[in-house]
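Give me the 3D structure for Major facilitator family transporter.
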Amino acid sequence: MYGGKSMETKKVNSGMEYWKKIIILLCSGWVTIWIYRSALAPVYPQINDSLGGGISDSALGSISSFYFLGYVIMQIPAGFLVDRIGKKQVLLPGFVLFGIAAFLISQASSIGMIYAGSFLAGIGCGSFYGAAYSLTSQNIPQAKRSFSTAIVNSGSAIGSGFGLILSSLLVVQMQMPWQTMMYISVALIVCMLIAFSLVIRGNKDDVAFIEKAKLEAKAKTAPEKVKEDVSFKRLFAPRMLFTYVLYFATCYAYYMTVTWLPNFLGTERGFKGVAIGFSASLVAFASIPGALLFSRLADKYMNKKIQFIVVLELLAAAMLLITVQATNQVFLLIALILYGFLGKLAVEPIIISWLGENAPKVGVGTTLGVFNFFGMMSSVIAPRLTGSISDMTGSKEMGFYISVILLVVGTVLFLLANLRKTKQA
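Predicted structure for Major facilitator family transporter (425 residues):
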């Protein structure tokens, strides 16, 4: 027994470090999730036609809303379960449900069946966030955490970009059935289930980490110990609360954009065929260098994370404003690229890193669950609200203006809460 264990340890140590494997694995997980998430938006007209036509924009937008409703509902329970039973034990059943849901959508014969499948897919994917960022908080060295989180998050951009392009190319341009993207998603989900099973360590590591954090908390003085414990008061302290508000605004702008941008470009700005998916994917691909650059700077200047967050959020709001006001396609594309470079996927690793530094160590999963619950509530609201606005006004421009206002308000509130904390300190 002992000899086998020694050989296993030696094999692990001689290969890639575990935390680096975690980065690659979680990045791939986001790629899979986002290929699914972005696959349906470009093919709403094809879905409408396959179901007999007559489906409104708000009803089509609700496909995304039902997914995010399931995703939001799962955030706090998943975070709680991650802290109690372990990350692997939460991830695997979640992705099994995700795969079943994607297959059910591919077999749907009514919009109601697509809603049901989307809701189940959201519940399945809801297992990922708390487990993923608990793994990064537990295993990645602090000095490399923002940059490593940016690499993990880049999977969202890669998946979103490829999902939009593949969907536009295979379904819109090559006229393959829209269900093709669901079959691709199912295949990728199966690959991820195998990878999770092989790479992620078992529950013993989770227990050891939690016990170590508890011992460190007990060793500290009473005032410091309070910071290590999960409590309602700590979860909803002003700085934490306005971080949730900021994330709500950030996610609202992003999910409104990724859901309706392909349709907006095609119906209101004259883009055609694969150009729709390619242009929409620029937001995702431009976010990768932005996320890596700004997270590296945030790791280098660790005491400047609040300033990075505020500046990036305000610049992203400005780029969205230019996007909706631009009548020239070149200016519009430049604004979209800059929104991707400066927006959610660029600022999110810094927010998560800042949150990890301020969250109680023995309740990181719970804190991340609450944080993501607030942020992802916007993803339930934004797609349907923008679709309803489009049905009433014939345009989705007001959806962009609402996003800009929310970003500015959320950023100002976050800044004020942190200024107040600094003065008190």
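The chain has 19 helices and no strands. Let me know if you want a second pass.
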